[in-house]
């Protein structure tokens, strides 16, 4: 048969109690060290014996830091629990107010669209009309503002496009002038000398006679061309007696 569960109770024998305390204390410190190393946990262990002797163990961080962290955590947890309770009570009080507020807003929305106007009095209808007029004026003001801004933006774009267009026209005109100049320079032809037949004849007498003979041959030999180079008649040269 297996061993049964041992009932834990205070050891009456003082010597046995001291021996058990020493053994269990060593095992407890060993287990605390093992869990801190294996699980990378921060462990703090404080043990007081029956005689009031202190035995403690803490990980690499000091015991004071672990205790301060414990106190902060405990305080925050207490505040959280208190806050949850207070918040629950507060929401219980605020819930009816919020429900009434939502119903009022829904009714106002229906009135703004022209619904559920029967229960309203004359004063309430006048107030509703005034609110709607004020809302329409604000809407128109905002609409006009947006229209003016849009028109101003379009005018700026128009001016920018006009400037770009003028710049492009100027560049095209300059390019056309350059092409025209290039075309004129390519069409320029240097003057050629006149043909041989149009050149001026020689001033020599022999040359004149030869040219005259050639012209006579072209005319068929029937007509004679007077020779301007023949001697003048002697009577033309003879002096007249007075």
Report what the structure shows:
The chain has 242 residues and is mostly helical. The protein has a domain at 12-61: SRF-like. 66% of the residues lie in helices and 4% in strands. It contains five helices and two strands, in the order αββαααα. The protein has helices at residues 14-39, 63-112, 122-187, 205-218, 234-237, and strands at 44-48, 54-58. Strands 1-2 form a two-stranded antiparallel sheet. The longest helix has 66 residues, at 122-187. The radius of gyration is 65 Å and the shape is elongated.
Brief rundown of the structure:
With 242 residues, the protein is mostly helical. The chain has a domain at 12-61: SRF-like, CATH 3.40.1810. 66% of the residues lie in helices and 4% in strands.
Briefly note the CATH topology name of the domain at 12-61: SRF-like
CATH class of the domain at 12-61: Alpha Beta
Per CATH, the superfamily of the domain at 12-61 is Transcription factor, MADS-box
- Spans of at least 5 consecutive residues whose pLDDT stays below 50 are 201-207, 219-226
Give the CA-based shape. elongated
Order of helices and strands: HEEHHHH
Strand line-up across the major sheet: 1-2
Sheet having the most strands? 2 strands, antiparallel
The whole-number mean of residue pLDDT values reads 77
Beta-strand percentage?
under 5%
Secondary structure: number of strands: 2
Alpha-beta classification = mainly alpha
Helix content: 55-70%
Domain K-box: 88-178
Subcellular location: Nucleus
Keywords: DNA-binding, Nucleus, Transcription, Transcription regulation
Region (Disordered): 173-242
């Amino acid at each position: 048969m297996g061993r049964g569960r041992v009932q834990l109770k205070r050891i009456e024998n003082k010597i046995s109690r001291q021996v058990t305390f020493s053994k269990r204390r060593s095992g407890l410190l060993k287990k605390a060290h093992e869990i801190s190393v294996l699980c990378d946990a921060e462990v703090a262990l404080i043990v007081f014996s029956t005689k009031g002797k202190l035995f403690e163990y803490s990980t690499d961080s000091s015991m004071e830091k672990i205790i301060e962290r414990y106190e902060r955590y405990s305080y925050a947890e207490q505040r959280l629990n208190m806050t949850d309770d207070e918040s629950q009570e507060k929401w219980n009080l605020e819930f009816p107010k919020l429900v009434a507020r939502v119903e009022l807003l829904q009714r106002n929305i229906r009135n703004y669209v022209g619904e559920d106007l029967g229960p309203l009095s004359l004063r309430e209808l006048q107030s509703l009309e005034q609110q709607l007029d004020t809302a329409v004026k604000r809407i128109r003001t905002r609409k006009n503002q947006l229209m003016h801004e849009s028109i101003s933006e379009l005018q700026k774009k128009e001016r920018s496009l006009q400037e770009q267009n003028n710049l492009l026209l100027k560049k095209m005109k300059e390019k056309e002038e350059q092409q025209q100049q290039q075309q004129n320079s390519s069409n320029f032809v240097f003057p050629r000398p006149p043909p041989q037949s149009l050149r001026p004849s020689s001033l020599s007498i022999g040359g004149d006679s030869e040219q005259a003979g050639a012209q006579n041959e072209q005319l068929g030999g029937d007509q004679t061309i007077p020779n301007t180079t023949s001697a003048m008649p002697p009577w033309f040269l003879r002096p007249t007696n007075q």
